[in-house]
Write a structure and sequence with these properties.
mainly alpha, 5 helices, disordered N terminus
């Protein structure tokens, strides 16, 4: 229903000013790119562990703990891009047709979906703050002392960052839905 405006001061598809929209895209895409790079890191760690297990008969230190933290961190970092690209799982066989045949109700449904998404992901981000604080203050680490250890707070920080940006992306999309509803009600069409 929305389209991008070409004027530099005009709002983009989510109702953000063009400059703020470009900065927001860089932030969201930057986190997704970091998540993609971490997928490569995770693949290298797993492959190295396989080689060491087959060659030496034992596992590398930190692999299971690091793999678990990296996996959660990758999902958190790439979630905002998934939201922005409209790639979250939902009943598309219903949603797409409903939005075309009932644009105002479809925009309202999308607004509610994005509002609930912002609340849920925002709640996850909020609960992650306490975990980050605990890990920072207690010096929490993964691994075995004397062999290999890593502090957990950098992982927790990136998880918190990813979830916060994803919650904000849901809010940005909900604001765009409000603009769509207003445009439909006033009869304005997209330029």
């Amino acid at each position: 229903m929305s389209s991008s405006h070409q004027n530099s001061g005009a709002p983009d598809e989510r109702g953000l000013p063009a400059a703020a929209g470009r900065i927001w895209h860089v932030i969201v895409d930057g986190l997704a790119a970091l998540g993609t790079a971490l997928i490569l890191v995770l693949m290298v760690i797993i492959c190295a562990d396989i080689v060491v297990r087959n060659g030496l008969g034992s596992s590398l230190p930190l692999v299971s703990e690091l793999g678990a933290l990296l996996l959660v961190m990758i999902v958190a970092l790439q979630l905002a891009t998934t939201v922005r690209a409209d790639r979250l799982a939902r009943a598309e066989f219903f949603y797409g047709g409903f939005r075309k045949s009932h644009p105002k109700a479809g925009s309202l449904l999308s607004f509610l979906f994005n509002l609930v998404g912002a609340g849920m992901i925002g709640g996850i981000a909020w609960s992650s703050i306490r975990i980050l604080e605990k890990d920072w203050s207690s010096g929490e680490y993964i691994g075995v002392t004397g062999i290999a250890t890593l502090p957990t707070w950098p992982f927790r920080f990136l998880i918190l960052l990813g979830m916060t940006v994803a919650a904000m992306e849901f809010v940005v999309r909900a604001l765009g839905d409000i603009r769509d509803i207003r445009d439909i009600r006033t009869g304005r069409s997209d330029p």
